[in-house]
Structure formats: C-alpha cells, structure tokens
Predict the 3D structure of the following.
Amino acid sequence: MADLDPRTLGERAERMILALGAISAEPRRLTRQFLSPEHRRAADLVGTWMKAAGLDVTEDALGTVRGHWASAGEAAGRNTGKRLLIGSHIDTVIDAGFYDGNLGVVAGILAAEHFAKAGKRLPFALDVLAFGDEEGVRFPATLNSSRAVSGEFREAALDLKDADGVTLREAILRYGKDPADIPAAAFSPDEVAGYVELHIEQGPVLENRNQPLGVVTAIAGQSYLSVELMGEAGHAGTVPMMMRRDALAGAAEIVLQAERMARDSRGEVVATVGVVTISAPATNVIAGHVVLIIDIRSGSDPARHDFVDRLKSAIRTVADRRHLGLQVTQTRNVATTPCTAAIQDGFAAAIAATGGEPLRLASGAGHDATAMARLCPVGMMFVRCRGGVSHNPAEYASPGDMGLAVAALIRFIEGFKA
C-alpha cells in the first residue's frame, strides 16, 4: 500500500470535493441542478482535472464529461480492446452534502491518474464518467445522462418540464448541446467490459461495523404506492368520534401499518411515507380527502412484491373498517439491480489488500449503476459516511476513508479481467 499512499490520495480527494462543493446556485447551501450554469462550471472543473491527470477529455450531448486513458492496444494502434467505465454524478439535491456522487467522480479521476502519470497501459481502456442527472431534481425523471450512455435514453424525456416550464430539450440547447446527438452518447455493449462506481454508503452499516469500505451486492428495487382515501369532511367540534369518516386518521393508521410490517421483515424491506397531502386542510375540519405515497425498497424483488401485496391487503382492511373510499395505484416499479459476482469479488480482494474487512451489503438508494446495468456488468464499492447521513449538509466522509477507497479502486483496476 505504501506505493499508493492512501493519506495523500485522501487529502487530494478532500480538496477536490471542497472545490466542487463551492459551485452552487445558492450562496449558503449547495444546490447544483442538471444543465444549469452551476453544472457547466462543475463540468468544466472536472474536465480540467481530467486533462491534468493525463486523460483525453470529451463531453456528450447530455453534458456527461468523459476522461479516457487508452488501452495498450489502442496506444499502439492495434486492437483497442474493451473499456472499464468508472463513474458517478456531479448534480446534487437542494441543500446537499458535498460527497454524494462527487466522491465517485473524484476517485475515478485519481485512480485513472495513477496509471496515466506512470504511463502504464492496461489491456483495457479506462473511461471516467461524470454524469449530470442522477438526482432527478430539475426534471421529473432520473438517470437521463447515464441512460444515454447505456443506450437506454427515452426520447419522451425531452418533453419533460422543470418548475419554470423549461423542457429538457430546451435546457440541452441552452447548455450548448444538440438533442439530435444523444444517440451518439451510447456505448456499444461489445466495447464495454464493465462499469464500477465508488459512492458514500448513505447509511450507517459500515460505521456500525467499524469498516471504512464495503462491497455492494445489489441496488434495491423500488415500488411506490399512491394511496387515495376518500372520507367525509365535517366540523371538528360537532361530528361524534364514532360517526366520523376521517381520511387523515385512516392515512395515519396506514403509515404505522407500513412501518410495522417493514420492521417485521427484519431488514429485508424498508417502507417510508414522505408525502401526505390533505385536500383543503384546516384545523377545525375533519379531513375528507388524503393522498399519501409509500416508498417500498428491498434488495430482493420477491420480498418486495410480497410486501406490496400484503400491504395493499392491509390498506383495504383499514379503509373498509373506517368506511373510506380507496384508490391504490402503483406508480413506480423498479427491479433490483444485482451487482456482478466477479466485480464484487474483485472489490472484496481490493478492500482486503487495504487491510479492511470486505463487508458485503445492499444499497437502498438508487445510483447510475442501475442504468448502466442495461449495458454491461456493474459493481459498486461503498465508503463509510459519518452517521450514515446523506442528502444533508452534514454529509461527511473522512480523508482517511476516501484515501483507502481510491487505493482500493486502483487495486481493483489492476486485478480487473476484461
């Protein structure tokens, strides 16, 4: 490990992440949306770093910055061989932390630089990708930039509008790109050996196990249930409790039922209600109409589907008992993305080489790797983050852990078989 010097790598990663964190649409918090002026500034900075690292830099029609280190065959003018793609995203949520996405891009640049500065050509090329639309904050869709790279971009997404009524097509043109060039962003499956992503865990497991790094086994599948409850509005002081058809009370019971069932799954399923909408809310009116969204995730599709079926049944029971009208609609159904076994094993060996325990765990959050799995084998390595906090200004990964992560990524690349 001495030749990689994790301490120096971690300190460099920290400086780069702080520099990216300073690029924001707001002066006192980090907000950097897809195809915004701030995205442009961040992409330019990333491109500058890639060039300084010795990589050839290009940018596609959706603003993904690409740094390329040629394979031995390509450099010699022979068979180019395949590519190992390394990536993550540089867009953020509103009032974000500095490390989500950005760490993966910075780590990819530092890892590629290790080979470029040494003039070491590999049997495969390295491509570092800085995606711009993982969070889905600006437009009502996620992963547009990585979908384009994987050949799965949906043309209908061009008509999606942001909060100001700007379509994705218009935003691309304002960014200086041409939507007609999007198909050219796609790699061919024949030229890609795999995609890997280094990311903060965004959860507390590694910290609880006192391990800096972990191997991701799968990216959880997701289901969203939109639950509409129709009761009867009434005066808060005059309608007896036993005669009420309170839609909000029914919603509260359903929220607790979903929580109870998820807890009973012993970690196999998580369920969250983050949105409850009351029509015509007032302090002195019994809620007559409520809509809630239930977010259900699991690393096992059978477990998730079974949970959804059982929860729907439980919701119907609550609605019937409370004499509420009910409409349940499944608005999202994203399959679990398994990480390729050989890539998992490669990361496990690389983590062991840093002196860590290669703990394996699933990701409950979505990532660009979900889109890239449609193109090639994928894998991820997690980095411990303090308190498991993410999508929050308190998000933090230590330079020591980040240095170990970059060193492990380099070890992984050295042992990768294209």
The mean pLDDT is 96. The chain is about 35% helix and 25% strand.
